[in-house]
Amino acid sequence: MERSELLEVIDTLRLVGGDTAAVEAKRARKALPTRLWETLSAFSNTRGGGLIVLGLDEEEGFAVTGVADAAKIASDLGSLCGNMEPPVRAVIQTHEVEGHLLVTAEVPEVSTANKPCFYKGAGLTNGAFIRVADRDRKLTGYEVQLLLSGRGQPRDDLRAVEEASPTDLDADLVSGLVGRLRRARPRVFATASDEEVLRRVRALVLHGGRSVPTVAGLLALGAYPQEFLPQANLTFVVYPGLRAGQTGPGGERFLDNLAVDGPVPEMIQVAYAAFQRNMRRRSIITGLGRQDVWEYPETALREALVNALAHRDLSSASLGTPVQVEMYPDRLVIRNPGGLYGPVGVDDLGVEHISSTRNEVLLRLLEETPLPGTDRTVAENRGSGIPTMVAALREAGMDPPIFHDRIATFQVTFPNHSLLDDDIVDWLRGIGAGDLSNTQLLGLARMRRGEVLSNGSFRSGTGLDSRVAGAELRDLVDRGLVHQTGTRGAARYTLSVRAEEGLPSEGGHETVGAGPIPAEQGDALAPRSRRRSAAERHAQIRKALQEGPRSRQELEALLSLQPASVLRHLRSMHAAGEVEQTGSARSPKGRWRLITTSATPPTPTSASRNAPLPP
Q1: d(CA 20, CA 9)
Q2: Domains of the chain
Q3: N or C: which end of the chain has fewer CB within 10 A?
Q4: What is the pLDDT of residues 463-498, one digit of tens each?
């Protein structure tokens, strides 16, 4: 880690007022914190790892207090890393900051084959943690089990359901699968009996001298799998409000609510019918003007359902949990038990052609089982489900899906709005984005809605390869439209203050006439009043602070600004020597106050821009 990167980390901690998902700071003046192994385990088990900084006092607003003996602290930290299983290969360094020595440890994520990483002294049950927001959380027994099963190929879908028999399979589904296999691979299946075919594809296995269905066989081909696997189904709920439990104007708790049973092919069709009766039409802006479409594209919905049902965890610990579908006015959520399996991470979804399948036998059956009444199979192309889903949303002018992998669950969320709506188009025109690529426009629109992009998440929404995505993001940074924090794989991108305020970029164009948002769209792209500049916002903040110190939350409410926007303005004004922070950054009593009321604020020097915020 470069010293400049560390200074930026410290600056961010002070502005945020606490640790982050990727950074843990400790005072550690004379010795290591007694349970620092929890953070080593948590970062090792979390996507992307994390950074430990020793010598910062969080209680004093992340003041640099330093460590008394940097060599000893670094040595003890290295020994602690060696007491983890597997050993943590952290990059440990010493830095001089503000006249004190800090010790940092860049903790890498361990490989899937070695998770969970745990502290030997506490054992696997009590010594394995994961990072959640700014805290280290102990892994549950179920999460430990899932991570251990990820070291090899799970076989839960191959488990024999001994109380069932071949007569519990649906004759039409069996006929469709067997007929397809005989036509596609006659050398293997043409002369085999139906039962022999089903045994060869592991829908049936021998158990106690007789053929019985496997879990995969029942889910793909069963007449009523829930007779033997009661919760291996799907629940579908439509809520009237923005959260579960919020009632509608008539007091209704939900607008639709059903439990969907049957084999996977049937559940997909019933669930999609429920989508159709609960979806509305909406208008989007395209290169040809306005177009009416369904709220969610059919292809994206079907692929999301197939992924949730085919890749759910089928171990005994999770069979009591169904796949859950929740529709809200502003989003659609599909959640299944069991997080991502194998080497695939959230940032890889939709862009990397990596196939990692928890339920190999079930997916193989679904690839050969036709949907009832159609010639299409349930899962048509292995490894293409999420790329197809992302492409369908992109073509519909919608945000890409948001993926959450929490080890015990995997969730995909579809925001219910057009990515390039009237407000976004007007804003893109104002910042002079006319000569940008379509994918850059989409990236800016996502950041405008508050998303923090990485190279991976930018690729997942655009389909670009890593090299092109990196070049497009760097171009946005060079234009002054985007602010970059971190480097290499840790780089994150947010809107610059200039872009946040709707000011034209350097060398940009005032009209957006390229790609999916042409300027010739008449009323749909009519210009609106110019948004306030950064100087105007700074003047508002100065006026507010002239009445006395205020907290960030008070400024947000007073100026009707988002938290990220207030933080950017305060950072800029602090660098210019206009404001300072008083009290602990984490304390609700922490306030910002003016240190100059000059109408023309001083131009920040490079030294002042890099100066840390006071505690």
Answers
A1: 10
A2: 3-139 (3.30.950.30), 156-227 (no CATH), 422-525 (1.10.10.10), 534-610 (1.10.10.10)
A3: N
A4: 677 888 888 998 898 888 998 887 766 788 999 888
